[in-house]
Design brief:
The complex is a heterodimer of chains A (about 100) and B (about 250). Chain A contains three helices and no strands. In chain A, helix 1 packs antiparallel against helix 2. Chain A has about 100 residues and is an all-alpha fold. In chain B, helix 2 packs antiparallel against helix 3 and helix 3 runs antiparallel to helix 4. The relative contact order of chain B is 0.05. Classes of the chains: A mainly alpha (about 100), B mainly alpha (about 250). At the A-B interface, helix 1, helix 2 and helix 3 of A face helix 2, helix 3, helix 4, helix 5 and helix 6 of B.
């Protein structure tokens, strides 16, 4: 039986990589993918706890998180399309002033 | 854990097989751990967004394998279908559509003074999480494990939970998806070719001058307006009547 802490360690590592990616990356789509990675790290924690405590609630939460991620993907990519159309660039530094 | 690497067990083939069977879970976990972390690092390190996307698909696949290892086959299946299938196809589609150029090299770091502080805080956070992982043992989890096999994670148990106890969140999710569909359609519509009969949502991004007047030599300073109709009137586009304003 694999200890629970192994899964939590992997989740923490993936989440940290995701945070680092959001901070480092300047391409809007790459930042978006790093956010997806962070969501997946949290999902792993949910499933690990759910499996170890024999409680299905965590996996239901993962289901909801995945739905939110899908909705976020649709709206986020719509925003990225709109920004690209206005500015011809996906660099977030070019879009630092949201007003124009 | 020391016995995992004990060479004495590997002296005979039968014992080696037994050892393999004992630690098959751990072996698969370590493999998937390596794939997930390696692909995640590669995703951040790549400068071409398409390579990042492919690395992310590897992370998703490794996580699906871990969900199977955790006896959660339903979550593993929708991980592959929804994440690696639907969401990543959407991302790759947008990357292809926009013809994204490679990211430029990093600019020199500002705020160098904060680097030591960041290192110290990262060390504190690391020590904290290591302490929790090593010294905190959960008796409840061990008791639940001792109770034997369970149906948690099978599709039937998830379906039963979704349609009884968690029916309201499930229904709210459907409303959320509907809102996301409407929002995505509103955001992604092409704003440059608005005909006078088109319905335009007030507050959408149609605010730059050149998107409203087709002449190429018009200056592209933005128009300050709360709605597209207001922007049209400010620009003197007499014919620009918008149906949503007429209906009101």
């Amino acid at each position: 039986m694999i200890p629970l802490s192994w899964y939590l360690t992997l989740s923490a590592v993936l989440f940290t990589i995701g945070v680092a990616g959001v901070v480092i990356k300047r391409n809007a789509i790459a930042m978006f993918m790093c956010i997806e990675l962070m969501l997946n790290a949290v999902n792993l924690t949910f499933v690990a706890f759910s499996s170890y405590f024999r409680d299905v609630t965590g996996q239901l939460f993962v289901f909801i998180v995945m739905t939110v991620a899908a909705a976020e993907a649709a709206v986020g990519l719509g925003i990225i399309l709109a920004v690209f159309r206005n500015r011809e660039s996906l660099d977030v530094d070019d879009a630092s002033v949201l007003k124009y | 854990m020391l016995s995992l690497f004990a060479p004495t067990l590997l002296t005979t083939p039968a014992l080696a097989l037994e050892w393999l069977a004992d630690y098959a879970d751990e072996g698969v976990f370590v493999l998937l751990f390596g794939v997930a972390v390696g692909a995640a690092v590669s995703m951040v390190a790549q400068r071409n967004p398409l390579y990042s996307a492919i690395s992310l698909v590897f992370v998703f696949m490794a996580l699906a394998g871990l969900y199977l290892l955790l006896a959660a086959p339903f979550i593993a299946a929708i991980q592959v279908i929804v994440y690696a299938g639907a969401i990543m196809v959407l991302v790759v589609f947008v990357i292809m559509l926009l013809n994204v150029e490679e990211e430029e090299r990093r600019r020199p770091l500002r705020l160098r003074l904060l680097v030591p502080a960041a290192v110290v805080m990262a060390a504190v956070l690391f020590a904290e999480s290591a302490f929790i992982l090593y010294f905190v043992h959960d008796a409840a989890a061990e008791r639940a494990q001792a109770a034997g096999a369970s149906t948690v994670g099978l599709t039937s148990s998830i379906g039963a939970g979704l349609f009884t106890t968690y029916l309201l969140p499930f229904e709210i999710t459907s409303a959320l998806i509907l809102m996301a569909i409407v929002g995505a359609m509103t955001l992604a519509r092409r704003a440059s070719d608005i005909r006078p009969t088109d319905v335009v949502v007030p507050g959408s991004m149609v605010l730059a001058r050149h998107t409203l007047t087709p002449e190429p030599d018009v200056d592209s300073t933005p128009v300050h307006a709360r709605s597209t109709g207001e922007a049209g009137r400010e620009l003197g586009l007499a014919g620009a009547q918008y149906r949503n304003e007429e209906e009101e």
